[in-house]
Amino acid sequence: MNKINIDRVPHNCALKLQAVYDKLKSAEKKAADFIMQYPDQIEALSIVDFAERAGCSEATIVRLSKRIGYDGYPELKADFRPSESRTGLFDYQGLRLDDTPQE
To answer: Helix %, strand %, coil % for the chain, to 5?
Structure first.
């Protein structure tokens, strides 16, 4: 999993992606990797554009969205909207990129 931009991925999304990543199918991993690599683009992308850029199908994006706890892509996309009230991943002291979701 590409963790380069994990600090810009919404906290819950990042945790859920880390928790399921090893169990994802290859197409779902492409979508997850795209989220982790380009989190700043997610909010502006239609599902068609996301699928094209990630190299997977629209259905794959919907499946991944549901697998990590969203009702679908619109809800995942909404989580990437800027929000001052959202808690970032690195707001927690002692949390490291290689920590497990439980840690």
So the answer is: 60, 0, 40
